[in-house]
């Protein structure tokens, strides 16, 4: 709804075929807030439900019904605004945005216009395309109501479901002209990182579940291109229907290329909304925005204004949980690589699982490898979120313990882990039941033998054996048993020792 | 300040009102009378008066985030002229899917 520029349709000078262009990408994000009830009434705000079963006179806009603001929704927006480094508007209020469209039955949307937003002038830190970090300026963070759902059923009619009507919605918009010291998003990769970082912040705060596929987090980038070095902005297009991180980067990338192509071929960009189509991986025009809408905003008379005092704001600020970037730094300080730390923190539940597993005093890198390796692979295969998995942090720590004290080999552990994942049994239970302890684990014993045979201090004994002194075998059996705390099967040790030493002849 | 017929036509469009030509003329006159009246009021010196955009001296009126029962669907749908027993049926509108009139 950024009713920004009236600077549409500016004639763009014809550029030569190899003029380098850069893109300017603005992000408008809508996040459904995780409240129990709607913004102005007690109807359930939960996702789904049979059509039109979560409605009442207030969210249907029936005459005489009066809205009352959901306190938690306001608190969620304040928290998000603080986490996004915004200034808080101390005295502010709602507006009516008037329009005729059946997605809201009142013929207006309760929203906040311009600087009446609860949070203004914030920033978010993202990873720049050329390394280093960038501070992306945030123009505003405001509270509004979501709209109902229209299903275009036939050629002449549409079905309307008002279950989502008046669910609390937070809008977060980046700055079109960044203040000094702040940056703009300029590439598809940065756009993707922006939405990834923003989603992490919102889910860490617990104000939004961040499910792009279900539409609880919606991202509508607006894109323009200009010759590198130019200070003017080109004509913007807006993209809709980007339902995943991948769609965000592919959609933006496609649109940037499309615009550059149009300009290089002497065409001009039309200010319009374009719809991303996942299948064909292209954007197509939905409607042109040649006429700027006039929404006749005015202060909402049915709702009383907000006043936020210092005490309330400082209390909320103090209550903010550890934010993703701080957590990433803590993981790096613990010995996790930058890249792994970044992956671990993207999903709050994954980072919490990691923290809990590490708290059992097992090796940080080993936990990282399990979580981002075998575990993530199985979770993705089965489409299970980590906090709903049967594997607990304690069970993973126990498994790692079994490897560390050499009860099982790393190779066997993979199978044990898969069974833990499927059955929820403890690793010790699985190992004992299957008898897959070290006794029958030839790979593990062989590993130990190869290591012992290569140790410099054992070379004199090895030479004796190779020279024909068979009695030295006992010495190596002893060494192997010692290395395995006496749990290796001596017969297997004997056989494998002979095999390995024969190889050295 | 005088309103023109063109401006009145634009405002009528925003309000979804279909006006005949003679109505536009007549309403332009009426609206201009109202504006003239306000122009009269504007002459008052209000430089010492705080703007009043609210009549109630209250802020922060909230409700707790608690779910209350919704209406039964039959009752909800009874308010609309046409339904399919699950959803309201409206004339198909151009898909803008962002809540803005098209």
Q: Which CATH C-level class of the domain at 5-42 in chain B is it?
A: Mainly Alpha
**Strand proportion of chain B:** 5-15%
- Biggest contact: A-B, 62 and 41 residues
Overall mean confidence score, pLDDT of chain B: 87
Q: What is the CATH topology classification name of the domain at 5-42 in chain B? A: Histone, subunit A
Rg of Cα set of chain A: 30 Å
Sheet with most strands of chain A = 9 strands, mixed
Low-confidence segments of chain A, given as residue ranges, are 1-12
Order of helices and strands of chain B: HHEHE
Summarize the structure.
Helix content of chain A is 38%, strand content 19%.
Walkthrough of the structure:
The complex is a heterodimer of chains A (505) and B (102). With 505 residues, chain A is of the alpha+beta class. Chain A has three domains: 21-312, no CATH class; 322-436, no CATH class; 442-503, Arc Repressor Mutant, subunit A (Orthogonal Bundle), CATH 1.10.10. Chain A is built from 15 helices and 17 strands. Chain A has a nine-stranded mixed β-sheet. In chain A, strands 6-5-16 form a three-stranded antiparallel β-sheet, with no helix packed on it. A two-stranded antiparallel ribbon of chain A has the order 4-17. In chain A, α5 packs across α6 (338-346). Chain A is elongated and about 100 Å long. In chain A, 43% of the residues are buried. Mean pLDDT of chain A is 90; it is low at 1-12. Chain B has 102 residues and is mainly alpha-helical. Chain B has a domain at 5-42: Orthogonal Bundle (Histone, subunit A), CATH 1.10.20. Chain B is 37% helix and 6% strand. The longest helix of chain B is centred in the first third of the chain and has 22 residues, at 21-42. Chain B is flat and about 55 Å long. The interface between A and B is large, with 62 and 41 residues.
């Amino acid at each position: 709804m950024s009713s920004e520029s009236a600077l549409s349709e500016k004639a763009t000078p014809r550029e030569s075929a190899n003029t380098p262009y850069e893109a300017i990408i603005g992000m408008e994000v809508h996040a459904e807030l995780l409240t129990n009830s709607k913004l102005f009434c007690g109807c359930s705000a939960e996702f789904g439900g049979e059509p039109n079963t979560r409605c009442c006179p207030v969210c249907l806009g029936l005459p005489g019904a009066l809205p009352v603001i959901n306190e938690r929704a306001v608190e969620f927006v304040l928290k998000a605004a603080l986490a996004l480094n915004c200034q808080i508007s101390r005295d502010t209020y709602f507006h009516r945005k008037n329009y005729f469209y059946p997605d809201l039955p009142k013929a207006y949307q309760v929203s906040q216009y311009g600087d009446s937003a609860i949070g203004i002038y914030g920033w978010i830190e993202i990873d720049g395309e050329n390394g280093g970090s960038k501070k992306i300026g945030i123009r505003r963070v405001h509270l509004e109501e979501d709209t109902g759902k229209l299903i275009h059923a036939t050629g002449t009619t549409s079905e309307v479901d008002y279950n989502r009507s008046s669910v609390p919605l937070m809008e977060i918009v980046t700055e079109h002209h960044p203040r000094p010291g702040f940056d703009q998003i300029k590439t598809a990769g940065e756009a993707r990182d922006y939405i990834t970082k923003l989603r992490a912040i919102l889910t860490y705060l617990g104000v939004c579940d961040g499910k792009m596929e279900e539409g609880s987090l919606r991202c509508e980038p607006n894109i323009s291109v200009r010759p590198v070095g130019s200070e003017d902005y080109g004509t913007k297009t807006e993209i809709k229907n980007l339902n995943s991180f991948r769609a965000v980067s592919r959609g933006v990338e496609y649109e940037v290329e499309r615009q550059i192509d149009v300009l290089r071929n002497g065409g001009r960009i039309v200010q319009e909304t374009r719809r991303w189509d996942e299948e064909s991986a292209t954007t197509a025009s939905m409607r042109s925005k040649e006429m700027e809408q006039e929404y006749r905003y005015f202060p909402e008379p049915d709702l009383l204004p907000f006043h936020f005092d210092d005490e309330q704001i400082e209390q909320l600020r103090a209550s903010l949980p550890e934010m993703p970037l701080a957590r990433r730094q803590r993981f790096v300080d613990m010995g996790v690589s930058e890249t792994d730390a970044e992956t671990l923190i993207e999903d709050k539940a994954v980072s919490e699982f990691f923290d809990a597993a590490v708290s059992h005093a097992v090796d940080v890198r080993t936990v990282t490898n399990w979580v981002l390796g075998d575990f993530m692979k199985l979770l993705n295969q089965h489409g299970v979120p980590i906090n709903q998995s049967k594997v607990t942090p304690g069970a993973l720590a126990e498994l790692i313990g079994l490897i560390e004290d050499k009860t099982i080999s790393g190779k066997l552990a993979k199978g044990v882990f898969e069974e833990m994942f499927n059955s929820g049994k403890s690793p010790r239970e699985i190992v004992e039941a299957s008898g897959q302890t070290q006794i029958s684990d030839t790979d593990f014993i062989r590993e130990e033998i190869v290591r012992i045979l290569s140790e410099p201090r054992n070379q004199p004994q090895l030479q004796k054996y190779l020279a024909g002194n068979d009695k030295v075998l006992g010495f190596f059996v002893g060494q192997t048993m010692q290395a395995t705390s006496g749990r290796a099967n001596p017969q297997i040790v004997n056989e494998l020792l002979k095999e390995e030493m024969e190889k050295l002849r | 300040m005088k309103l023109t017929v063109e401006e009145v036509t634009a405002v009528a469009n925003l309000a979804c009102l279909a006006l005949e030509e003679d109505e536009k003329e007549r309403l332009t006159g009426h609206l201009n009378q109202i504006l003239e009246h306000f122009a009269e009021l504007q002459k008052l010196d209000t430089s010492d008066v705080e703007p009043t955009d609210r009549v109630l001296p209250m802020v922060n009126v909230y409700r707790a985030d608690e779910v209350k029962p919704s209406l039964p669907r039959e009752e909800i749908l009874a308010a609309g002229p046409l339904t399919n027993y699950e959803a309201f049926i409206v004339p198909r509108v151009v898909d803008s899917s962002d809540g803005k009139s098209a």
